[in-house]
Design brief:
- The structure holds two protein chains of two kinds.
- Chain A is built from eight helices and 20 strands.
- By secondary structure, chain A is α+β, with helices and mostly antiparallel strands.
- Chain A folds into two domains: 218 residues, P-loop containing nucleotide triphosphate hydrolases (Rossmann fold, 3-Layer(aba) Sandwich), CATH 3.40.50; 125 residues, Beta Barrel (OB fold (Dihydrolipoamide Acetyltransferase, E2P)).
- In chain A, the strands form four sheets. Chain A has a six-stranded mixed sheet with strand order 6-7-8-3-9-10, sandwiched between helices. In chain A, strands 13-12-11-14-20 form a five-stranded antiparallel sheet. In chain A, strands 15-19-16-17-18 form a five-stranded antiparallel sheet, with no helix packed on it.
- Chain B is mainly α.
- Chain B has one domain: MetI-like fold (Orthogonal Bundle).
- Helices cover 72% and strands 0% of the residues of chain B.
- Chain B is built from twelve helices and no strands.
- In chain B, helix 2 crosses helix 12.
- The chains are: A alpha+beta, B mainly alpha.
- Chains A and B meet through strand 6 and helix 2 of A and helix 7 and helix 8 of B.
Chain lengths: 375, 301
Amino acid sequence: MAASGKDLVLEGITKRFGDYTAVDDLSLHVPAGRFFALLGPSGCGKSTTLRMIAGLEHPTSGRVYIGDEDVTATKAHQREVNTVFQSYALFPHLSILENVAFGLKRKKVPDAVEQAKAALELVELAHLAQRKPAQLSGGQQQRVALARAVVNRPHVLLLDEPLGALDMKLRRQMQTELKTIQDEVGVTFIHVTHDQEEAMTMADTVAVMNAGRIEQIGPPDELYDLPATAFVANFLGKSNLFEATVTESNGDWLSLSFAGTTTGLAASRAVQTTGTIVAGIRPEKIIAAPAGQPPASAGSGWAKVPGGRVTSVSYTGVSTEYEIAVQGLGEFTVFAQNLHSTGFTEGDQVDLWWEESNLFGLAGDADTEAGIEEV
Amino acid sequence: MSTAVQTSAEEKRAWRLRGRMGMLLVLPGFLFIVVFFAIPVFSMLSMSLYTQPEGAATGVFEPGLNFGTYSAMMSTYWDTFIRSFGFALIATVAALIIGYPMAYLVAVRLRGRPLLQGLLLVVIIAPFFSSFILRVQSWRFILADEGFVVSTLETLSILPEGTRLTATPFAVVAGMTYLYLPLMTLPIYANLERMDSRLIEAGGDLYASGSQTFMRVTLPLSMPGIMAGTLLTFIPAAGDYVNAVMLGNNVNTTMVGQVIDSRFFQSVDYPGAAALSSVLMVIILIVVMAYVRRFGTKEIV
């Protein structure tokens, strides 16, 4: 199977529905063959963006390029782009094989049926070729939808929350399968999802979207390690964000002061390097230690925040999640690996420790609550 | 150890009781069918075999097994049967051609505009609010020789001078088409209305142009609606009486309904009328069964 993927370029795409701006001046370049995830909460414009790439919606302004070709004005059926729909949208009156062969037949490919059979082999459903979609389970339908899209060797394959309807176990399995299939066919995948874990495990580049704009774009580990906005810090995993003042700067390192304590912050990890900023640290990068006892790993380059009190403990097996209230700073979330059978209980007095190189700095006017999903 | 799995006598009694309740609920419908369908059909079939005793007065018949009535009726009126089914077929096709786009417009194109949809639905159903006879009668005015339609068509040279539309097969078929149009449109609308519009998008996504998507996706998926609409149009149209009487002539527009009427009320030939009715019923039954077998789409959910 030859790689058929092409670059996808969006240039200043805007989509308005009446007064509502779903997508706001969005630009994007996805190199050929990438597995690219558009991640964001519902209503952030990610599905609308996908529909504009598919040609199911047309942008109010801006241009869409596939490869070198400007496809902005073309209709869906004229684009070498296929979609795996959220609800699969399999044709209920056609057999599985006819569903998969549908696109090839419209393109008048001579060996449409043979290719469709091969695609069903790829998703391991060849034995169900003569069934109707309604006779298949959700996971099987999902794979048919994928085969129906992949078989056309599109330049770009769009996945609109394709795993949303599956249960957790099946979803994990499909994530792996999707990744394998993408490696095999070499098509450019654009995956839309609101599940940050799914985006991080599958995609090699993630764009976090919020309110019609892209907040940040990059490989999952970079986004996680160094979020540039409070929204990304909170939406992609969890973060502890707090306000701090830059008291000193020696070029590479900043000194921050907050609630009577100080910590260092690498200047290269800060969006803003003067005045009041918002500092952040991931929960698993904090070590909670009994008050007055530094953890064994702590040394130079570590910061200590004293005066914490454990307010809640949730045990999840591999780790325990603590909520720790710190005087003058608010609640901190700490993930501790369960290396020992003893942990803290509610009411324990603890100190928080972190390695200063793990801290990141955001703009001082950042809304520390942005991107926290309401449950 | 299996006590928990066994059903107690009490449970069994409860189930039986529930079974009886179900039967009780079916009873009214069953009685209705027996009294108003099974008995009349049986009496019609037996009446068609009655004989007229030698020298009996008009309208006096006695029970018999006279199958000759069927051959006599069919040899006289076979052409009327053909005409009836021909008219019904043309009217059904015409109603489908007119009704489908209407249903499609309201159900698919105007999706997400409930106000406009509601308004157009009312317009489709509105004819039912006025009297059936009045509506047929108004076609006589519309198609009248001095009427607007004929004179306009003549002026535009679409029709030659002096053409008549009243009392022609055209008038009868037009009347039937119009009369049964809502019965065609509404089932198709109901079907298209609940069709998943993402399937249409999927068609476009898979390289099918608008018309290909329609032919390959929308149309096959609306087959149940088309089936219901065509049956609801064809069956009453085949037995139509009013349109033929009011819009036709007595020469080349006579339909079976009219013949049955005249046999019954004018010739007082009850067995003849019953035989014609039986044949009409059987033919419709066969046609419908063949049609449903050929195009029936049980598999579509």
